[in-house]
């Protein structure tokens, strides 16, 4: 049942995201094509899905959340485009498809990543026209920018890049994971809460829940990099080893990594129970995320 519901919800979310993509026309058509290719290359649509479910948890029912759902997926995609570049991880495949720089060239891939990043903010701002509560929209655009930028995802990626080929101590690895993976998940879930009118205290609780999910998700990623295959994952395995990267698994060992994923998942579900309202799908989604095979 969960799988059916997950498939249906993922498709609904995907349609929302696609509806905000630019038309592929005009002199700068190539950049639109590269942006759309990258967003449409597949993926779990996890961030917009979590955003929508938290919005519903707090009683949100409007379409005002939709521009933010599209925006967060654009930001996530922009980070993947740049991650795959030769100057970063130098990956040629993602989700079983050629990466953006391989298809469109290094130059266009850089521009497509930049374009999605700023188009995300332009998209999010469309929520102003869809709501009676402009203040919430303004607050959420601030959250989106902060969690993406130097105090969020880009800050985490900076430390990650600087420490490639070096042994990373646990505190720095936690910092990288919290910012590089956790920050966007936190943005997604907190924006869902804010747009539905949750209190500041409830938003902080949601942020804690998202942080636990983000860390569990990243550790599971490290586990899959060691235990899965390219056929299942759709991207090269052992790429961390190839890129000489310290991971949670290389620091803590696979058994402890698996136990910690379990523990973090339980923490996230416990926090969910402490919030008002209930959302069974959200609970199942958290569990599926951290036990995933790809």
Automatic annotation (TrEMBL):
Its cofactor is Mg(2+). InterPro entries: Isoprenoid_synthase_dom_sf (IPR008949), Polyprenyl_synt (IPR000092), Polyprenyl_synt_CS (IPR033749), Prenyl_diphosphate_synthase (IPR053378). The keyword Metal-binding applies. Its EC number is 2.5.1.10. GO terms for molecular function: (2E,6E)-farnesyl diphosphate synthase activity; metal ion binding. It holds the Pfam family polyprenyl_synt. The keyword Magnesium applies. It catalyses: isopentenyl diphosphate + (2E)-geranyl diphosphate = (2E,6E)-farnesyl diphosphate + diphosphate. GO terms for biological process: terpenoid biosynthetic process. One of its GO terms (cellular component) is cytoplasm. Gene3D superfamilies: Farnesyl Diphosphate Synthase. SUPFAM superfamilies: Terpenoid synthases. It is an enzyme of class 2 (transferase). Keywords: Isoprene biosynthesis, Magnesium, Metal-binding, Transferase. NCBIfam families: FPPsyn. Belongs to the FPP/GGPP synthase family. This is Farnesyl diphosphate synthase.
